[in-house]
Structure to design on (757 residues):
């Protein structure tokens, strides 16, 4: 590796940065926004400091905004799930011959479903360490709506009646809370928001960014002597808040003992009662997953002396269970996803092309591309793994499928991935297939599901296609994946393709990783390596090593720095001067990636410095000027690169991937950032000719192997690493894997599909 792309001036040392980058916890916490803090940071996404997906949604001009359309889709999905739940008459199953804690739990579940208070003490003791999952009953879902949402978009304040906002503002004033929270609180709490908030002050905790201590202070101001730590309303609010934070950290549910322990840490005197009250109100669901691990015999239980022996002296098997608690929306989305995946795995794909035609296509492709084509020929669900170079194999599949007469489409995580895959699908002199659309058959996942891109819907509301290849599959959260799978028509084929070493989704779930581990369908591992020094470096990181690679063309450069101030200085120098001059990549084609938004070398500090150098201006349009690079988040978990075009009475005008976007004035602060510097989650799914990865010393706690792999693999020609983390970097690559996420997808899939050989 080189140490600099070109001889450059030595930066002057800056003041050491004392702000630590948050590394996150099993239950992540958002930052406060009550007193004018940046609402775009009001959530911590998975992988700790990388909070890319926590921004509220923005909108566009004319008609419902994209965020509003996604909210409407989410409401439709919840209504569908509610209908499914109402049809489910029986309690949650866990098998037979349960006793002790498991029997108590089953009684609690039945009590909740009957509208009664659950029995006390169910969650008093920790459950056994989770092992492999056991069967759950299969349930068939209804049709999915045409639109989609990832992590739920923030409610739209503009949709709330002014008088409702005024009523909430009066209550906030009485409790000493800032009135700036009124629009969102009114939207979140709905009809009678002011009265509801007065009756239950802890409902304020449902507003994005409000922390428990702030809600406690608000409640004390309103309730006075009546306010106490054991208040039932407080226990319910804290339980739901912890489950929401778990979702922000990627979990679809939490183990019961972990949740009660977290409640105790928050000063809830009776965590069991708080949890039971939440379950009784139907605001959360409890699940018991029977645990079975291959090769492990079930524990034996013999009747006690004072018990009636119904086993004729034989030992009775006791099945261990894992107790999970989750928010209904994520739990039932995971069930819907499992049902849809089982439908794909167990069904025979719709006839498309003859067996001879598929075999001819596979023989012409060779290697792992041929294996992919053969697998898709006979299966409804196929997984494909590999790095950036392996995308040529799904591209070959799409091309061959068109030649066989199938309506084949691909969907990428974002517009950069869409454009890169479209380039792979370029005809290059070949004849178009009979089912090939006029343009390139590739869309973004969000555009495909909303109808803004792709083939549209058929008469039954399903996507009008026979084969769908989803790229960047690790970025699928559980809700988006459920909507996607349920939008496929019967007999369609689905290929989930992606690099398993990158960061998981911003939203809850680890869909691609769970499917790879479950082994319920064919898995094709690409044998196409990423080329050159960058490919060698990234491949080593994926294996847990940080190799020293030869980079004669300065493909990889390490720039050591002493502190965060020097890191910012050298980053600006690299983007604006050294990389364009020595590598030939202009500043507009270079991305800066850093672990978090805050800190002395976070995205805010770096973007401010880069704007001053590359596009100085007064920022008269809400801090933005024409020509500014921006990161626009139309919905949480989605980031679109763009550029400011101008502003007028309607709002801030952007150009995002060639599309004109108008962001209303009131939403600019929440969904638009300067975009020279991004977090790794924001950059996932895109590639740039050059990338500058900034690793200040205070970011050591935020580093992990998936984070480093994702950040380093965003560059296609040149990578500069501004290295201030010292030994924390190789240590993270070698010793810090992805942070575990608690999900139920494997246990839900196990009884529905046969294990692949």
């Amino acid at each position: 590796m080189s140490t600099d792309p070109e001889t450059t001036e030595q930066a002057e040392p800056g003041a050491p940065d004392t702000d630590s980058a948050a590394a996150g916890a099993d239950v992540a916490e958002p930052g406060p926004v009550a007193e004018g803090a940046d609402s775009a940071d009001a959530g911590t996404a998975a992988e700790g400091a990388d909070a890319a997906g926590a921004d509220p949604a923005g909108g566009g001009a004319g008609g419902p905004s994209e965020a509003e359309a996604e909210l409407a889709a989410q409401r439709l999905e919840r209504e569908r799930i509610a209908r499914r739940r109402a049809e489910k008459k029986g309690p949650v199953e866990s098998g037979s011959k349960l006793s002790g804690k498991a029997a108590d739990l089953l009684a609690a579940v039945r009590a909740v479903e009957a509208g009664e208070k659950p029995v006390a003490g169910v969650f008093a003791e920790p459950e056994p360490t989770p092992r492999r999952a056991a069967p759950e009953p299969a349930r068939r879902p209804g049709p999915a709506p045409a639109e989609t949402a990832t992590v739920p978009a923030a409610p739209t304040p503009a949709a709330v009646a002014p008088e409702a906002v005024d009523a909430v503002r009066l209550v906030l004033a009485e409790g000493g809370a800032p009135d700036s929270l009124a629009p969102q609180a009114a939207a979140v709490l709905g009809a009678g928001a002011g009265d509801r908030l007065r009756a239950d002050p802890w409902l304020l905790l449902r507003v994005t960014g409000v922390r428990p201590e702030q809600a406690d202070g608000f409640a004390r101001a309103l309730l006075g002597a009546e306010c106490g730590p054991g208040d039932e309303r407080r226990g319910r609010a804290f339980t739901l808040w912890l489950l929401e934070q778990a979702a922000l950290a990627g979990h679809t549910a939490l183990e019961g003992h972990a949740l009660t322990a977290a409640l105790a840490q928050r000063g809830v005197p009776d965590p069991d009662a708080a949890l039971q009250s939440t379950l009784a109100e139907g605001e959360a669901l409890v699940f018991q997953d029977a645990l079975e691990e291959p090769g492990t015999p079930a524990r034996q239980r013999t009747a006690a002396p004072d018990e009636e022996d119904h086993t004729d002296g034989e030992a009775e098997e006791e099945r261990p269970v894992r107790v999970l608690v989750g928010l209904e929306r994520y739990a039932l989305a995971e069930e819907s996803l499992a049902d849809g995946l089982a439908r794909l795995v167990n069904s025979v794909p719709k006839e498309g092309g003859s067996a001879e035609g598929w075999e001819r296509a596979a023989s012409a492709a060779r290697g792992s591309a041929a294996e992919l084509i053969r697998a898709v020929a006979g299966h409804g669900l196929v997984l494909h793994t590999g790095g950036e170079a392996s995308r040529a194999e799904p591209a070959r599949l799409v091309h061959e499928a068109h030649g066989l007469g199938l309506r084949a489409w691909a969907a990428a995580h974002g517009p950069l991935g869409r454009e890169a895959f479209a380039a792979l699908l370029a005809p290059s002199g070949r004849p178009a297939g009979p089912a090939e659309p006029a343009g390139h058959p590739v869309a973004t996942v969000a555009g495909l599901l909303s109808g803004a891109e792709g083939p549209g819907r058929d008469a039954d509301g399903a996507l009008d296609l026979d084969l769908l290849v989803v790229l960047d599959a690790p970025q699928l959260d559980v809700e988006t994946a459920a909507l996607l799978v349920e939008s496929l028509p019967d007999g369609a084929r689905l290929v989930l393709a992606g690099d398993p070493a990158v960061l998981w989704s911003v939203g809850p779930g680890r869909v691609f990783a769970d499917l790879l581990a479950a082994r319920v369908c064919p898995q094709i591992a690409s044998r196409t390596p990423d080329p050159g020094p960058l490919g060698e470096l990234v491949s080593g990181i994926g294996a847990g090593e940080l190799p020293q690679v030869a980079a004669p063309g300065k493909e990889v450069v390490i720039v050591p720095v002493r502190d965060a101030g020097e890191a910012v200085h050298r980053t600006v120098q690299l983007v604006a001067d050294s990389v364009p001059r020595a590598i030939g990549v202009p500043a507009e084609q270079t991305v800066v990636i850093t672990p978090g938004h805050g800190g002395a070398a976070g995205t805010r500090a770096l973007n401010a410095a880069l704007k001053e150098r590359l596009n100085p201006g007064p920022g008269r349009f809400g801090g933005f000027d024409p020509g500014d690079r921006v990161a626009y988040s139309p919905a949480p978990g989605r980031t679109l690169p763009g550029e400011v075009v101008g502003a007028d009475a309607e709002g801030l005008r952007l150009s995002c991937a060639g599309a004109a976007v108008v962001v209303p004035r009131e939403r600019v602060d929440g969904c638009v950032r300067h975009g020279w510097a991004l977090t790794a989650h924001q950059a996932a799914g895109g590639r740039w000719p050059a990338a500058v990865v900034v690793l200040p010393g205070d970011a050591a706690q935020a580093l992990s192997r998936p984070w480093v792999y994702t950040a380093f693999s965003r560059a296609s020609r040149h990578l500069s690493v501004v290295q201030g983390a010292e030994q924390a970097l190789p240590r993270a690559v070698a010793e810090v894997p992805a942070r575990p996420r608690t999900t139920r997808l494997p246990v839900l899939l196990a009884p529905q599909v046969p294990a692949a050989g």
